Amino acid sequence: MFKAFRWIWLLLLGSAFWLPSHAAEVLIFSDDEYPPIMYKDAQGQARGIMVDAIRNFEKLSGKKVKLELLSWRRAYEYGVKGKGGLIGLSKTKERQAIFDYSDVIFEDNIYLIARRDKEFEFKTLADLKGKLIGMHLGASYGESVDSAIKQGVFQSDLSTTDVFRLKKLLRGRLDAAVVSHGLVGLTAILHEDPELMAHKNEFVILPVPLVRDPLHLGFAKSLGMTEFLNEFNQSLKANKTPLSVKID
Fold this sequence. Notes:
The chain is of the alpha/beta class. Helix content is 34%, strand content 26%.
């Protein structure tokens, strides 16, 4: 009897090692400082459109996801190394060789913010010739923007936080700075810092987007997460409430 019980126990224990890898809680990394797309609120809670997409997936699939918000540079590094998924990911040819992608979660418009007293006309990347533009460290704004930087059309000044970029702009150390989702994104950043809020009328959004940026969930190809991505895509299609920008 004891031997039979031990045999059944060993069989059950052994079968646990053959469960699909995605049966366990899946780890996904995101940016902690990119409102309103993905960020931590004043209480340190994950917020934003990408977070909503993950929560919708959990609700519809019954599966659990562990979402960890870090600096984008660190999140991207972990994603490349296959330590987990990466949400809020743009597509480039270089990245497509590394990641398997979900469908588009949300198409973000990236705008330029300038000081009102130094506003300039922007319609094409050529209009940025010779300018210094504040951008997010580790982010890609699409192949055309990346190419313009490499060709020296304009220079990028990289930093990890929106508040820091706008303070540099306020002090005249940048010609412009990127902001996600126009007025909504700018408003979210201004509310993070009393100094910026006090000078809110000194900022102006240039009307033409720098780039339209479709955002995805991605996993390193080495993880073999295409089945999970297919399920995630189904949650995007099944969600009855379209993902939208909200500021708490």
